Amino acid sequence: MATPVAHLPRQVPIDGYGAGFFHFAGMASEGSILALPSGIHAWPIATVGQIDVAALAPVLAESAAIDMLILGTGTELWVVPDALRWRLRDVGIGIDAMPTRAAASTYNVLLDEGRPVAAALLALR
What we know:
It contains 3 helices and 9 strands. By secondary structure, the chain is α+β, with helices and mostly antiparallel strands. Strands 1-6-5-9-7-8 form a 6-stranded mixed sheet, with helices on both faces. Helix 2 (82-90) links the parallel strand 7 (68-72) and strand 8 (94-98). It starts with 5 loop residues before the first strand and ends with a strand.
């Protein structure tokens, strides 16, 4: 998967979300997003079934600047497959999966604390 084009070339908190969209820095984005040290990016993933190493390639590419990935799984709970968890650990990234509402809040808190965090957030349907 190619590195996505940034909507915003810096990392900012998530200001809001709803059915199919996210708000951040006075902007809105339809669909899922990646919040990475390089910025907020569109993420062409709609379901947990699509989350794999390829879907998280942009996260892996920025692993030197990320200690924790917060994974927002939409409205459902999802257990991260061991192979994916270990692939992230191999590059020094821990992962915590939770519904998107909780994930956006957790990401904001960790970002505010200055922690090296990223988020992969599925849009709510």
